[in-house]
Amino acid sequence: MSRQSVKRRAFVQQAVATSVVGFSAASYGKVPGANDRVRLGIIGPGARGQELMRAFLEAPNAEWVAAADVYTRRHDEARKIAPAIKSFNDHRKMLEMKDLDAVIVATPLHCHARHFLDTLAAGKDLFCEKTMTWSIEEAEACLAAAKKNSNRVIGVGQQHNSAGHFNDAHRWVREGLVGKVTSVESWMSRNTPKGKGQWLRPIPEDCNARNVDWKAFLNGRSDRPFDANKFINWRLYWEFSGGNVTENMVHQIGWIIGALDLGVPTAAYMSGGVFAEKDGREVPDTISAILDYPNDLTVSWQSTFSNSRFGLGIRILGSDGTIEWLAGTTDMVSGNSASGWNYQPEKINRPNGEAIKGDAKGDNHFANFVECVRSRKEPNSSVELGYRSAIAAHMANLSYRRKQRVTLESARQVATK
Ligand SMILES: NC(=O)c1ccc[n+]([C@@H]2O[C@H](COP(=O)([O-])OP(=O)(O)OC[C@H]3O[C@@H](n4cnc5c(N)ncnc54)[C@H](O)[C@@H]3O)[C@@H](O)[C@H]2O)c1
């Protein structure tokens, strides 16, 4: 086992241990009744966190009571959205609050597992942004903790699995309209202005070692002097991120997993590189990933940051029909932009099949979570979905980093350098 692997294992063990000893039963929240307000706290009200704060305010009968962040600036920004919240530098202090029902985790990827485990150990319900964890080991530790705390409601930030296109696709598959599915193709593409790499964020003037708890951000990564670029642009570096696979593939693979009821892949292959903007980033901006699933299925996902013409899409290719979901895709010939979803029969196997245009409404993903906190039902995007999506994402990234085919077993055994 490599040193990196040992270090990571130690991190997971440490995170689990912290979670177990950190909280007393007295800090456990009570379960809100059917009409009670759900009191929310957030860990990491940064860019996504603030979007979530606004989005959850629209859920009926939910309120923000607390926010924890290692950067002082975020306390002020969070208070602009919810002026009455209590602010904390250390999330563990926030988790001691008794009048807190559910915690939203929107920290950088490498902190998710710690915040996930600490939240469950504190007896709170949990909504964890995608990707659920930074590594396979962490995903396994989080799933195990979720099973141990099965009385807790846990949702993940994979909102596409609440959408109308998901509901229709899932129903069409269940109704047998696609037949045997052997292939799924999916893609996600964006363009970026030349010289300004995707995701690159400016560093605020007050982003310095006085205003940031750098050690808490590092979360067990090797200690070093404060680095404002790494703190703000963590997405570009493997230590903290999984690149576009954990940013965007995870949404689409989660949708495919949900629609087809898939488990974890049997193998992953991934190619690509930093081709668009060579600005010091480590994570690839151009990706071709293939995931093999049991029972004769292969799923591909392609992504580029230097051409946006075909937006994003998924095609489920079955012997009896095709399900297509497109967003912002431009037709090659007409130049028209297509958005929407539909089913097309394969006439050779379903001669009487009819084309169907999708029109399901879908749920508000955030209201769904809040409602589940009250009803104790499983949210649309469950911890199991988060786990399976995370495993697929990490297997793909490991294949890219190792330049070889990766199975779950080989992913578990040998660590990345
Ligand atoms: N579901 C979606 O569509 C969607 C969209 C965007 C981002 N996200 C996810 O949201 C997460 C956050 O992304 P972002 O762009 O908001 O990042 P960000 O850097 O803007 O925000 C992260 C926040 O966490 C804080 N933080 C860092 N370490 C912390 C710690 N140890 N304890 C407490 N706070 C800490 C930072 O100060 C910052 O305010 C990522 O996992 C990302 O993948 C999801």
Summarize the structure.
The chain is of the alpha/beta class and 417 residues long. It has helices at 3-21, 47-57, 72-81, 91-95, 112-121, 136-148, 164-174, 214-218, 228-232, 243-260, 365-375, 383-402, 408-413; strands at 38-43, 62-68, 86-88, 102-105, 125-128, 154-156, 181-189, 267-273, 286-293, 297-304, 312-318, 321-330, 337-345, 356-357. Helices cover 35% and strands 21% of the residues.
Count of strand segments:
14
Strand content: 15-25%
Largest sheet composition: 8 strands, mixed
Instruction: Give the distance, in angstroms, between the N- and C-terminal Cα atoms.
Output: 11 Å
Mean pLDDT across the residues is 92
List all distinct small molecules, including ions and cofactors, that are bound in this structure: nicotinamide-adenine-dinucleotide
| Oligomer designation | single chain
Uncertain regions spanning at least 5 consecutive residues: 1-7, 16-28
What structural class is derived from the secondary structure elements?
alpha/beta
Could you state the order of secondary-structure elements as H and E?
HEHEHEHEHEHEHEHHHEEEEEEEHHH
Count the helices. How many?
13
Strand order of the largest sheet: 8-9-10-7-11-12-13-14
Radius of gyration: 21 Å
Query: Can you tell me the overall shape?
Result: globular
Q: Percent of residues in helical segments?
A: 25-40%
Walk me through what this model shows:
This protein has 417 residues and is α/β, with parallel strands linked by helices. The protein contains 13 helices and 14 strands. It has helices at 3-21, 47-57, 72-81, 91-95, 112-121, 136-148, 164-174, 214-218, 228-232, 243-260, 365-375, 383-402, 408-413; strands spanning 38-43, 62-68, 86-88, 102-105, 125-128, 154-156, 181-189, 267-273, 286-293, 297-304, 312-318, 321-330, 337-345, 356-357. Strands 8-9-10-7-11-12-13-14 form an eight-stranded mixed β-sheet. It has a six-stranded parallel β-sheet with strand order 3-2-1-4-5-6, with helices on both faces. A hairpin with a 2-residue loop joins strand 11 and strand 12. Helix 1 packs parallel to helix 5, helix 6 runs antiparallel to helix 12 (383-402) and helix 7 (164-174) crosses helix 10. The termini are close together. The model is unreliable at 1-7 and 16-28 (pLDDT under 50). The structure holds nicotinamide-adenine-dinucleotide. Residues 43-49, 68-71, 74, 91, 106-109, 111, 129-130, 157, 159, 216-217, 219, 247 line the site of nicotinamide-adenine-dinucleotide.
